[in-house]
Amino acid sequence: MRKKLIALFILLFLVLMFTLLAPPAVSKQTQGPMCHYYKVPVETMTPSPSPLPVYKPSLPQLPVVCGDNVFANYIYFHESGCRTQAVSPTGCFGIGQDCNGVLQNSCGNDYACQNKFFTSYALRRYGSWEKAYNFWSIHRYW
User: 20 to 30 A from 136, CA-CA: which of 4, 31, 96, 113?
Assistant: First the structure.
């Protein structure tokens, strides 16, 4: 009796496997290639275009805003806390920390003058504020 039950179980298992693995029957209406995953004609499957994700650097929200350029704002905040009169322990001065002494003599605490000075520096050395930010984010100085 036990051998008969095992044989019946194996037979049922094989029938089930062949049923699941059998290729789908193609009707006369759906002749042509079939999608094996969805079991539908390939012609009915229209791929939906998915746009590629665009990478945009996410700058953190800073508690102080010093200017309308987000990259300059980030550098200014991390260099001086957006303080035009900031002096580092090594003697660098201003919102962008000029270490040559030129800025303190020519601009003093004037934000517009300091911003113009550091914008000129960023464009001359890096080509843009964004490139200056990229350099700063890697090296922690500019």
Answer: 113
* Residue 87 β-bridge partners: 93
Integer Cα distance of 115 and 121 in angstroms: 10
Pairing of strands 40-41, 34-35: antiparallel
Full-model pTM: 0.56
Q: Is the per-residue pLDDT at 66 higher than 70?
A: yes
On the CB side of 100, CA atoms within 13 Å amount to: 7
- Do the Cβ atoms of 103 and 93 come closer than 8 Å? yes
16-53: per-residue pLDDT in tens? 676 666 665 555 555 555 555 555 565 555 555 666 66
Enclosing H/E stretch for 134? helix 129-139
Pair 76, 66: CB distance under 8 Å:
yes
What span, in angstroms and rounded, lies between the C-alpha atoms of 72 and 129?
A: 6
